[in-house]
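Report of the visiting student (M.T.), summer placement. My assignment was to run the structure pipeline on a short list of targets and document each run. The first record concerns TIGR03915 family putative DNA repair protein.
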Amino acid sequence: MTQVIYDATYEGWLTAVFEIYEYKLGDIVFVKNEVSNSLLFSTTHFVTTDPDKAKRVLSGLQKRLSAEGISNIYKAFLSEVNQIEETMFQFVKYVLASSINIERDLSNSTVLDIKKAARLTGKESHRMEAFVRFKLTKDQLYYAIVEPDCDVLPLIESHFKNRYADQRWLIYDAKRKYGIYYDLENVATVQLQFNPEAASSKFLTEICDEKEEFFQNLWKRYFSSVNIESRKNMRLHLQHMPKRYWKNLTEKIPDFKK
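After the run finished, the structure tokens were exported:
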């Protein structure tokens, strides 16, 4: 078995695919950033991300797949489901070995798995577009904390750039420890360690605009007023707004944490 160690980026994974073919590596497993000690008796192949190699793999796939098919591979990568890199590689092998477009061959488990993973990421990105709740800091930066199941920040940045083009904002993924920051012109990826006490009343008092608590309470009152108690369907509510999102939703926090 060969551990193919890459930098956890999509471009790095594409480079790895190129080198698997280039060096005729067999029985491979993808590992992010460092050697896995759990794989005994394995060899290692370290991948240095190469834009040219990545582009060649992507170009080969674009000749055989639709734009949706290419998008599904990327979304599958962002899904972070277990062993998705290996599933993607099996999909790529099937694509490159076929003389026809295989996207609709749902009898093939790999094709089906890629579609499922892509659908999962797409669903999560749509939820994040709806569930992001910004807070305003004293220096007029709108920030929001999210913890999506999939790595969806690359998919939602255009939505927020277009919708909030006149405001500086930061959306931070607490699960993956990075964020996307908009400076009124461009969106950039930022790496930072966010304060774990960001939801506490003391922290909010220190960094938030003086009117922020007022507007949050106003939003909670609005949410409460449109909620018709006699028509409450908690099962349906949880289906559209699962509990795992609640701790970052203003309307679901009855009061600032102490």
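The radius of gyration is 22 Å. The beta strands are 2-6, 28-32, 43-46, 135-136, 142-146, 169-173, 178-182, 187-191. I thank the supervising group for their guidance throughout the placement.
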